[in-house]
Design goal:
The protein is α/β, with parallel strands linked by helices. It is about 35% helix and about 25% strand. The protein is built from 9 helices and 14 strands. It has helices spanning about 50-65, 75-80, 105-120, 120-130, 165-170, 190-205, 220-225, 235-240, 255-270; strands at about 5-10, 35-40, 45-50, 65-70, 90, 95-100, 100-105, 140-145, 150-155, 175-180, 180-185, 205-210, 225-230, 245. It is globular. The N and C termini lie far apart (about 40 Å).
Length: about 280
């Protein structure tokens, strides 16, 4: 990247930084790390991170411009508490750009206009998703923030073959991504990386670092000067790799720690702490 200086670190959330109970993937027989609740829904704990991970994130936040980047809706993103207050955040796969916690209405309007011009209408793709859900394998079919569509399966093995729906979505200018029990249908012009590019411009940073685990993260990972993906998730199942993308040794919550440790090491290497002054 070319800009003023410093690092911008774009971080996917689910299964990269935060984990449900079933996605923690803690090694059998090993001592469980200290877990911190980072999200509640209807009064019950929903997502977790390790205490070490949150400490690494806090240190990274002190040294760089940390940007949470998620496909979650605005309301879903706001449920998450990572213990930091990032200046910028990106929700709805780039449909919302938040500045100090508030969505930028001009950004959202511009994205909505571009999606309408380049892709089939949301209602058409929602109908496609509802037809794909026939047979009862999906417990939820929903439009998210009037921008994209997702389905939630009762169980992941029940998700049918995606070849047909992927071809139909592509013909409509949309893409398909399967992440755990969720299947996303997203307009092709709605990408995390476009919003990340805008934050790079506003923050005037010189180096882009990134982390993510899904196909929807690929443009962001490829655009980064250096990136990390966990050894689990959609990209791991596909065997996806790129020269600038490292892969963690661990999976699950421990991979979240390794992601942040690797990114923090890169920031420290590029911008080491100043040496202490010599005694007089």
């Amino acid at each position: 990247m070319t800009a003023g200086g410093g690092h911008l670190v774009a971080l996917d959330l689910d299964k990269t930084l935060i984990f449900s109970r079933r996605s923690l993937l803690l090694p059998a027989g090993a001592a469980e790390p200290e877990l911190v609740e980072v999200e509640r829904l209807d009064g019950a704990p929903l997502s977790f991170a390790t205490a070490r991970e949150l400490a690494l994130l806090a240190e990274l936040h002190r040294r760089a411009v940390v940007v949470p980047v998620t496909t979650r809706t605005l309301a879903q993103y706001r449920r998450v508490d990572l213990g930091i207050r990032p200046r910028y955040a990106i929700a709805a796969n780039g449909g919302h750009l938040l500045v100090d916690g508030a969505p930028d209405p001009a950004w959202a309007a511009g994205i909505a206009t571009e999606v309408a011009a380049a892709c089939a209408p949301l209602a058409e793709v929602l109908a496609l998703a509802e037809r794909f859900a026939a047979g009862g394998w999906a417990r939820t079919v929903r439009a998210a923030d009037d921008l994209f569509v997702y389905l939630v399966a009762h169980e992941r093995p029940a998700i049918p073959d995606l070849t047909g729906v992927t071809a139909a979505a592509r013909a409509a200018g949309w893409s398909v991504s399967a992440q755990g029990r969720k299947v996303y249908l997203v307009p092709s012009v709605l990408t995390k990386q476009r919003a990340v590019d805008e934050v790079v411009r506003r923050a005037a940073t010189a180096t882009l670092l990134a982390a993510g685990d899904s196909v929807l993260d690929i443009p962001m990972l490829l655009a980064a000067d250096a990136a990390v993906r966990p050894a689990h998730g959609e990209l791991h199942e596909l065997g996806w790799s790129a020269p600038n993308v490292a892969v963690t040794a661990a999976a699950g919550a421990l991979a979240g720690e390794q992601v942040l440790a690797a990114l923090l090491d890169r920031v420290r290497a590029d911008r080491p702490d100043p040496a202490p002054a010599a005694p007089a």
